[in-house]
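Hello everyone,

My group is preparing for a crystallization screen and wants a predicted model to guide construct design. The compound we'll soak is adenosine-5'-diphosphate. Before spending weeks at the bench, it would help to have a computed complex in hand. I've included the protein sequence and the ligand's SMILES below. Output in structure-token form would be ideal because that's what our pipeline reads.
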Amino acid sequence: MSAPSRPRVLTVAGTDPTGGAGVQADLKSFAAHGAYGMAVVTALVAQNTHGVRSSVVPDVAFLRAQLDAVSDDVTVDAMKIGMLATADVARTVRAWLAEHRPPHVVLDPVMVATSGDRLLDADAVAAVRDLLPLADVVTPNLPELAVLADEPRAATWQEALAQAGRLARTTGVAVLVKGGHLGGDASPDALVDATSVVELPGARVATTSTHGTGCSLSAALAALRPRRPDWARAARDAKRWLGGAIAAGAALQVGSGHGPVDHLHHLPTLGLPSFTDDVAPALADACRDSLASPLVAALADGTLPFAPFAEQLHQDALYLTAYSRVLARAAQLAPTGEAQEFFARGAHSCLAVERGLHESYLARAAVRPSTPASAVTTAYVDHLAAVSAHGSYAEVVAAVLPCYWLYAEVGTRLLALADAVPGHPYRDWVATYGSAPFTDHAAHACRLADDAASHVDPATRARMTAAFVTSCRHEVAFFGQVAVAAGGPGGAPAGADVREADALAVG
Ligand SMILES: Nc1ncnc2c1ncn2[C@@H]1O[C@H](COP(=O)(O)OP(=O)(O)O)[C@@H](O)[C@H]1O
Ligand SMILES: Cc1ncc(COP(=O)(O)O)c(N)n1
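Reply:
Good plan to model first. Here are the tokens for the complex, ready for your pipeline.
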């Protein structure tokens, strides 16, 4: 049989109805590391970010029934043990472990919560010590280390490392000693076994969001171990992740005491609407405003005189030359071959269309080829050039998107209107944007923008939105830049082929 797609990881721990510690935190930590999480409950704890109110420890026969229900059916790749509550619970877990020990076992010797409340009976310490040889790694904080080693609490980090070394030598279990209770600017941890010390440095985050840090760390360690070559590598990655989770905890605004950490801080876009769903209202506004411009309105009913149409196309040709360079930049930054090809084709297509406008159409128009780019065209091009020079791939894609998407939307609506006018003089030009392949290209560009947005942090996502909205405004201004004289029949001069030369891939 092939290997499972994800490590199957079990927590045996108590509960926290506010989701910051215990089983609830462990399952989040497992999911955050790509593991399939399972949970056996040792104790039901009525607690929140202020502390523990009461707890119920179900009969140990029921605990054993839960453990057996898992091991009778599921292969457990790794396991984390948290709150054990009583000596009976610890002994029951030990008996089960003796028969069903998974390949990787982390023991978090939970004794006292961050709030100061006891989570382990005083007479249960010996039973927890008896569990140590069945674990691979034990993760005590400084007070717990002292209790397990049966020594006074270490006052310095060096003392803690020495104490962890003694515990590792007497029990044969590796000790991930946690310096969270040390105070000072640092919050170091270290993985200590009988012969070696691997220090895991970490900066202390100034925060009260430390509820469940020990639970989350030990769960991350268990979740990572099946996919890491050794405990040191798993511990390093778990610690790095926890630092980010602690830093992001306050923003969750959960509770008014010691708040939880953000287990999903590294997946900031999870659950957000897609980028294109998010900016769809801005696109709809731009579409409405574009259709309301005198040029587009006259284009729709076929009354647009030829001169302003030619003037608009001339600005379009100037714009396309610059836009091509920005698409080439998107191709350069593209993270996938598919995206690179899409934007490289787009860059080429812009130039082909620009040339086509001159050959098939503008050559016959009254607009002098030397007519410079308007202030409106220049402003739009400058915006795109600035994003292209300073922005990430995601921002460049957001900036170029309206030229695809808005042209497809406006083109589709214009085509429906043009089709209602017999002999519409600009129908072919309108059809280029209002039908495939251009509308397919626009849908493709939207998908690439959504892909790009799903990998960025909130600040970059905000810059994507700003770049998109600014481009939309420039598009509206672009449609509005040419004055349309009232009256006068529309239509291209005889012989003018309004259809653009190439199969358009850009607006
Ligand atoms: N303020 C903090 N900033 C950064 N890391 C912290 C902070 N407080 C705790 N940690 C880290 O969280 C983990 C749990 O530490 P600790 O609080 O000592 O354990 P416990 O939650 O079991 O009491 C350790 O990796 C520790 O270094
Ligand atoms: C069920 C349960 N298990 C463990 C802890 C320890 O939490 P902390 O990491 O904040 O000390 C807790 N508060 N509740």
